[in-house]
Design brief:
Its main location: cytoplasm. It is an enzyme of class 2 (transferase). It catalyses: N-terminal L-alanyl-[ribosomal protein bS18] + acetyl-CoA = N-terminal N(alpha)-acetyl-L-alanyl-[ribosomal protein bS18] + CoA + H(+). Pfam families: Acetyltransf_1 (PF00583). The chain has about 150 residues and is an alpha+beta fold. It has 4 helices and 6 strands; from the N terminus they run ααβββαβαββ. Helix 3 links the parallel strand 3 and strand 4.
């Protein structure tokens, strides 16, 4: 991911999440040199543009997948799996042993994706996510499921 990608990545983030990251959060991730990638479209247009992204952090032998998203029109095409594979390759080369993430308890598609990619639930973080108000519901909180994947070295 480059600074030039952030505008489109922020637009995708806003489409995908109830409480999206803002431009500054992505910028800070790049400034801190956190692992961050974009998946580019392979459209016949003159310039490629991001259709997916991933940001993580690592240190002390563990890592956290902070955010991952794919444009709604490109979901279920393997982009998220490719981004995750790229992250896993880098983490293994750095001797990272465990990768953690949190996911909203209501995000069944993401939960299925993570389980299919070797993650197992190891905990629940009560009231972890803010849930914005809707016309039918007041603002509230939602539990986050904590997932972990052991990374094999080799």
């Amino acid at each position: 991911m480059q600074l030039d990608d952030i505008e489109i990545v922020v637009e995708l983030e806003q489409q995908l999440f109830e409480t999206p990251w803002d431009r500054l959060r992505f910028q800070r991730s790049l400034e801190r040199q956190q692992p961050a990638w974009v998946a580019l479209s392979n459209s016949p247009e003159p310039s490629e543009f991001p259709v997916g992204y991933l940001v993580a952090s690592s240190g002390g032998g563990v890592a956290d997948l902070l955010t991952i998203g794919v444009s709604p029109k490109c979901q279920r095409s393997g982009i998220a799996a490719q981004l995750l594979a790229q992250l896993l390759t880098q983490l293994q080369s750095q001797q990272v042993q465990e990768l953690f993430l949190e996911v909203r308890v209501s995000n069944e598609a993401a939960i299925g994706f993570y389980r299919a990619n070797g993650f197992e639930q190891v905990g629940v973080r009560r009231n972890y996510y803010r849930r914005p108000a809707t016309p039918d519901e007041a603002e509230g909180r939602e539990d986050g499921l904590l997932f972990k994947r052991e990374l094999t070295q080799g």
